[in-house]
Amino acid sequence: MEQAQLDEYLDRFQLTDVFAGGLRDHLQPVAFQAGDWLCRQGDAADRMYLLLEGKLKITHMSATGKRLVLSFKHPFDLVGDIEYVRRTPLMNTVEAVTPVKAVSISYTALEQKGADNPAFLRFLLETITMKFELKSHSMSFNLLYPVEVRLASYLLSMTPETPTLPVSDLVDAADLIGTSYRHLNRVLRQFSQDNLIERTNRTITIIDREGLTERVGESIYE
Amino acid sequence: MEQAQLDEYLDRFQLTDVFAGGLRDHLQPVAFQAGDWLCRQGDAADRMYLLLEGKLKITHMSATGKRLVLSFKHPFDLVGDIEYVRRTPLMNTVEAVTPVKAVSISYTALEQKGADNPAFLRFLLETITMKFELKSHSMSFNLLYPVEVRLASYLLSMTPETPTLPVSDLVDAADLIGTSYRHLNRVLRQFSQDNLIERTNRTITIIDREGLTERVGESIYE
DNA sequence: ATCTATTCAGGACAAATGTCCTTTAACCGA
DNA sequence: TCGGTTAAAGGACATTTGTCCTGAATAGAT
Question: What is the 3-state secondary structure (H, E, C) of chain A?
Fold first, then answer.
């Protein structure tokens, strides 16, 4: 990526101040292809990523071998920020879902140029606090509502522009809302019978957003 | 509370630097009795609390009227820190479970004396990041394990020194692990039959910590 | 001590969800 | 085109969990 283009990004999203004070020079552009891993759960963490383009999937494997999809990340989300603050190994695996552009910055650089930089610290605070609220919300949501509601919410949030979804995403969906693939199918079948969605060859199509919205009330998976 | 005593607290827990730069003068000692509310969900937030002694309960009421116990707070946890960063109304209700001593500091003071104070910002970052990890952990735990495991974990974490628990805590327990009171009773009955606990008059007594630990594997409710 | 109001435990049944396995449908190479 | 191979869907059944209601236990007032 061109330096000029990176500067434009930073400017457009008001991040120029955040990376002032010498941090800017340590930003390294990186690109990934769909399917690439940015990092793996358990690895030692040594750098933070700022996502510029594309979509990331954050997954976690439990001690008992069950996989959980924790979230999807979109442009200007941070990855590795929590680990930087806590100095812990990576909790999660991060995979590119689409082609991805990002910048990375080493923890060393952050320590040297960021630890006393209020603008940068406030940026971290705001980002992490937002993550906290999001997680808090989805935790309540998961405890409070049955799979039907969670799935409807998922379907709505994953199809903001095009109303279709490849069936292969369903296994992620199950791991995201914390249910079994079997049960997911059961609920999808119900949605289908209620004419909320349509299953054709290898895609799910939303045909009644209103109806799905009714079944949710609140949305979470942004 | 004496100023000297407060200073001793701050010193003992290495918080003197955190509240340097003029923040220290804005710390106001406050005390609450068991059952008092520090603040209510939906209120406008205007101050942050640092808990010094006692125990707080954080609860949330959902749109559909279901109550959720989100966590318990112990000395040196912060309350209102997230709301300070995000500038949002209070998400949760905070209640004193025991007699409580705390210090409060107004958002106004934080803005004026804290926003450019790296030590204070780093303190916020560490605290909030820890909260995030805790929440992240409990969310995975809730999605991954059945009520039996969650309840065993709860029982262990709530009885670190004395092995008993008043029955009145059970309704909070149900709201904390996200199940019904009825089902909680069912599982407790099972524990009782397996000689893991004993129910006498109005208390639950842990009689086999090992056995309970076996049913958990990981602990969460700290 | 007795009555009563309140709190707590548990029975009965229904609904939600998980596990295991079979069937169906899509895809691919020859 | 065909057969085989793989991925997705669904059947059958068990388990977990929720809802509603009843009955037992307890504390407090008289």
Answer: CCHHHHHHHHHHCCCCCCCCCCCHHHCEEEEECCCCEEECCCCCCCEEEEEEECCEEEEEECCCCCEEEEEEECCCCEECHHHHHHCCCCCCEEEECCCEEEEEEEHHHHHHHHCCCHHHHHHHHHHHHHHHHHHHHHHHHHHHCCHHHHHHHHHHHHCCCCCEEEHHHHHHHHHHHCCCHHHHHHHHHHHHHCCCEEEECCEEEECCHHHHHHCCCCCCCC
| Nearest CA distance, B61 vs chain A (angstrom) | 10
pTM score: 0.91
Mean pLDDT of B25-31: 92
The mean pLDDT of B174-192, rounded to a whole number, is: 96
Which residues in chain A have their CB less than 8 angstroms from residue B132's CB? 82, 128, 131-132, 135
- Find the Å distance, CA of residue A64 to C1' of nucleotide D10: 27
Which residues neighbour strand C (beta carbon < 7 Å)? Answer: A 146-148, 178-180, 182-183, 186-187, 201-202; B 167-168, 170-171, 182, 185, 188-189, 199, 202
Q: What is the pLDDT of residues B50-85, one digit of tens each?
A: 999 999 999 999 888 889 999 999 999 999 999 999
